[in-house]
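ingest -> validate -> predict -> emit
validate: passed (alphabet ok, no gaps, 189 aa)
predict: started
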Amino acid sequence: MKSYSQLSQEEEAKIGQRWDKKVAKAQLRKAARSTSMQIANYLDEEALMEYLKKKLSALIWSRQNGPVGIGKQRIDLWGRSKINQYDVFIEVEKHRAYPIHNLVKAWQYVHNSKTPVLLIQILSPYHYEGNRNTRRKQIIFVGQQAEQTEKNFTYRPIGKEFWPHTAQEGPTKIGDEITSLVAEYEKSL
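emit:
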């Protein structure tokens, strides 16, 4: 095997080209990641909650704390039916590497509670890139399994097609999708 100093100019150029390609690919991945991270921040959870309060006024909405039994863990948005028939948990996954933790938190609550729960997990465009795409598929699979295991648990993921792509878009598309999922869920009770 030759040392670097023993390489011909042609061999040096090939190595340089390969290195340039690796660097260019890494820069493209980094640019895409920063774009998806920026897009992920376009969803304002407070604005979403205010939108849901108007659209789903039959629920009492909170961001402060979850129901008794969930411990110190927080639910991003939590809605409770005014007649206490069910809870709606909304987990907003902006750029959490392993969003499965939030699914397990809700699953554990349902397992120990008699209250029916609809978990809506909103996955940002960040979860559609590289190995996070595999994790997204895994979480949807686990959510479906949890739904089959627990009779009081309904899992609904919301994908990137509803995520706002500019700050001006606001929570309308996601809020409308949540509204339709809750209406569908209420019919199933």
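The first strand starts at residue 59 and ends at 62.
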